[in-house]
Design brief:
Length: 160
């Protein structure tokens, strides 16, 4: 059995090729995928913004942008659209008037639950795989995802 140091570059290249192929598919899916909630068609990026707001109650725009890995400007633009459709509301923080807090409305929570159910159905195979994995493998995958995340951040910073 080969250890990590003995693995030739082609093994690493296969992993990166698979990662790049996955990214390409995710981008293609993101462009095509829309959900209908409450009579409104919402794009994948919108539903993920709603999901983030639901997972991080009372988050401000800066925190939401950080969780999503996008700019505050991008979040603000999407928030305006989703607020007009009735998915969320924004209000001033009572302890800091400079901060704007974002909460989901009933329609927003409906979209949040719809998204959760969607992922339960679509991602079942991944959940099953992870549930059967050792903590060591989970830790490894989490570290690998962090490395990919940092790599993509560096790449995005270079192309700005």
């Amino acid at each position: 059995m080969k250890n990590k140091m003995d693995m030739n570059n082609s093994g690493y290249e296969i992993i990166l090729l698979k990662f790049n192929r996955l990214l390409t598919k995710i981008v293609a899916m993101d462009k095509k995928l829309t959900f209908n909630v409450g009579g409104f068609d919402i794009r994948s990026t919108d539903i993920h913004l709603i999901d983030t707001i639901g997972r991080f109650p009372n988050a401000n725009v800066t925190e939401i942008a950080k969780h999503l890995g996008v700019t505050k400007g991008a979040v603000s633009q999407k928030l305006t659209v989703l607020e007009k459709k009735g998915f969320l509301r924004r209000y001033k923080d009572s302890t800091n008037a400079k901060e704007v807090i974002v909460d989901l409305t009933d329609l927003g929570w409906e979209a949040f639950r719809f998204h959760e159910n969607h992922h339960q159905q679509v991602d079942g195979e991944i959940f099953k795989f992870l549930a059967a994995s050792s903590q060591e493998n989970i830790d490894f995958l989490e570290e690998l995802m962090d490395i990919f995340d940092h790599m993509m951040n560096r790449y995005l910073d270079q192309i700005k």
